[in-house]
Structure formats: C-alpha cells, structure tokens
Amino acid sequence: MRAWAQSVTAALLVVLVATLATVTANGDSADPGSVRMAQGTQSPDSAPDADGRRPNLVFVMTDDMRDDDLDHMPLTRRLLVEQGMEFTDAISPHPLCCPARAQLATGQYAQNNGVQHNKGVHGGFEALDPTEEASSWFRDGGYSTGFVGKFLNGYGPDDVRPAGWSRWDALTRGVYDYVNFSMTGDGDPRHYTGSHVTSVIEERTNQHIRDFARAGDPFVVYAWHLAPHYRITPEGGRGLPPAAPGDEDVLLDEPPASFDDPAFNEADVSDQPSYLRHLSPASRDDVRAENTARLQSLQAVDRAVGSMVATLEAQGVLDDTYIVFTSDNGYSLGEHRFTGKDVLTDEAMQVPLVVRGPGIAPSSTSDLPVTLVDLPVTFAGLTGVAPQWQVDGTSLVPTLLGAEQSFRDTTLIQTGRKLETGWSHRGVRTERYLYGTDGRDAFLYDRLVDPDEMVNVVDDPRYAEVLAALELRRTLLVGCAGWTCNQVFGPLPEPAS
Questions:
Q1: How would DSSP label each residue in 52-100?
Q2: Which pTM was predicted?
Q3: Which of 55, 115, 151, 437 is the most exposed place for a label (fewest CB within 10 A)?
Q4: How confident is the model over 168-184, as pLDDT tens digits?
Q5: Counting beta carbons within 10 angstroms of the beta carbon of residue 278, is it exposed (0 to 12), middle (13 to 18) or buried (19 or more)?
Q6: At 322, which helix (H) or strand (E)?
Q7: CA 8 to chain centroid
C-alpha cells in the first residue's frame, strides 16, 4: 500500500511540475520552466579501487547534539574534521529522534516511511516497515553489517530484528538511563548496571570492527550513541545526562553558545509561531547547567571516536574506511526562550556532519544545504551498493570527492503530531528564507536581514509574493517522493520595497 501511495504521489507531483512549467507569474517568481532535478538522486557512484578492495563505512551518530557542541570534542575535530570534509549547513529536516532515525533507516521523508512522531499511531518503531531498512542494501551487496546503540524510539526486546544486520546490539530497556539499561547483545541479551552506556557502545563498536576486519570482508558499522540526550530513568524521571566517570569536573566554566545569540530569551515573542509565542524566559542557571552536563556527556563520545579510529588503524583498514559523524537533530538552549527540539528553528535543525575517507580532501568544507535524508543514498554511493527502493535524498559523493555538484535550492522541513493526521508545521528552507505552517499558524523569516529569526514577516505585505512562491514550493514538496524532493526551482521574487 505504501509503495502504491508513493507512486501516485510522485505522479501527481510530476503533473504539478508540468503545470508549473506552463504558467507564468507576471515576472514575480522564478520561471517555473526552470524546475529541474538535482544531481545524483538515486544511483550508486563508487566502485572497488584498483586493487579490488571495497571501502568500509562506519556511521557514528549522537542524540540531540548541537552543531556548536562539536567545538568541545577535540579528538573528533582532529581525527575527522581535520582529516575530512565538514558540511557547514547540514540539517535534520524533521528534528525529532524517531522521525530523524527513520529517515536514516530508509532514505525517505516521513510522508514515505510512515514515521511522523516518536509516539502515537503515526510514530515510533511500530510505524516503520522493518523490511525497508537500508542495512539490507549492504547485506545484499556483500557487506558484513553491525549495529550498536539506540535504534528507533519504541524499539524493545520483543521487536523484530531488522534482517540486514549481521550483528545487532540495540538498546531495548532503560534506553535513556545511561547506567541501567539492556541491549540485545546480538542474540545474547544483557543487562548493564555498572557501566556507562557510551563506554559499552564504544567497546561493542570496536569489537565489531575487529571481527569484521579480521574476516577480510568489507563492512558497514553503525554506532548510534545516546549522549547528550537528557536522562530518563525507568521510573519516568527526567534529568541531566550523567557524565562518564572522570568527566564530572570538566568544562564547568564553559558558557552556553546560546548566551551569545541575540535570540536567547528573545524580548518579544508575540509574533512568533504558537509553539514559541507564550513561553516565559528561560532560566540562565538551568540552561548553563544543562549545557555543562551535555558537554560533559559528549567527552566519552569523543574518546569513543578516538578509540574507534585507533581500532581501524590497528586493523589496517583506516585508509579504506569512510567515517561519518552527525546527530539525529539539533537542540535549542534558550533561543526564542525555548529549550528542546521538534520545532522548525535553525537551532533545532542544524546538526554537525563530517565525513572522512578515501578520496576526501583533509580540512575541506562544503556549504551545500544537505540533510540527513541525503545520507543513506550517499552511503550507497560510497560503498557501490544499490538502494532497493525509491529514496528521497541526493548523493553527496560528487562533493565529497571534490567535484562540482548541482543541488536542490529548496528543502522540505516538517514536524509531526501524535494524533489526527500526524502532521504539525511543515514548510521549506531556502538559502534566504525559512517558512512553515500547520494550516492555521505560520512563520516566515528573511534570514538575509534577520539571521537570528526574530521577526516573523508572514503577515508583512512586502513579502506577499515571496510567501506565495514559498507556499507553492511547500505544496509541491510535502508530498514529494524520489527526484521530486530534489528540484531546482530557481530564484524567488524580491520583497517589495
């Protein structure tokens, strides 16, 4: 049923795009005939090297990490950022744990993979079709595969193991507790009470790498960490993430980066969307305490990255391995008075994204507006395997390997609800604008003149033509699938003077 729905959606979008190509708007918007597809949407890009070796891939992900948190991870910066490419405008376009992870598991937006929220009829692991999980691409392409850490929200000990993983060691109980948790143990379940979860994920990741490297087969390993997500105990209590032993006294005087943001505790939020409009100012002491705990919890992840690189080097496979580092979403620390995620602000969407590996120039950067949806098809391209269903992202392989790459100019962004249709605010992001609406409540920011997104111009008559053009793009993209998610629409109209 889902595949049928996707094909119908795609067909309707093709008709809409064709209709666009026959309509003009009196010069007020881009020539719709210029709409085209961005480069590298579906096909694999890589092949074995001259010696016949196929590259390995290790994918490290954190949970709720801000982009600027990477500044406090010196090993990750030295071993990945300085040895690879950093994407400086990477976002999680659906900035909430489960939808973000479902995008990474499928290469599809939520309208196509079915996961719109963490919970409810439209959310959690139960909303995902486990047969459409990208590990099968690598398994069928001849790769050994290993997963360690937090999978999708709601995944438990009695749930099906995605079939594409040779090794499967997912968190199942006490997922957010850090020190009292259970993991599948690759078929030998184990409960931990005396270990920090980051250290266990580190150890299991390195063991998978050693075992796969010694076997001589190419491998793909995912290490999905819990830090710096806030702690939730089995009794349901919420608290700060606990530091690993030895990290309790580090970074105590490091102020939150959000304190330097003009949007921190924004004085007037009356024009903001409803989820920001009625907030009281955030407590500076609470924000400082949370920032310290988050950074402390990431120090163990930083060491895990260091030991993982050392393990790859000791096994003689570092030079044949792509290493990818990112987070499932960003996190707001008092910007617009808000603390958390699941909102369409840059703080919640922006994530770190770094890739190191063969053919990637050290200390290189890219400002392409990439998203997590682009990663699965990129992984397929780097390893030379074929996606087994239609994906919604664009492969980043040309950029990673130093080539020029055309790219979409408008990105779908969205949030979900537990009930009703499962959708909340959905919109688009361009180089200049951030726009979204839930049908009743809307926002539009002109980031050229308002980079901190403090002035909502959705009702400003000077932006009427801009708003109309963005709404047209939003209408096309909320049902997109495959190439229709990666269009180049062309220039937007200028605001009226």
A1: SPPPEEEEEEESS--GGGGGG-HHHIIIIITTSEEETT-B-SS-SHHHH
A2: 0.91
A3: 437
A4: 999 999 999 999 999 99
A5: exposed
A6: strand 321-327
A7: 27
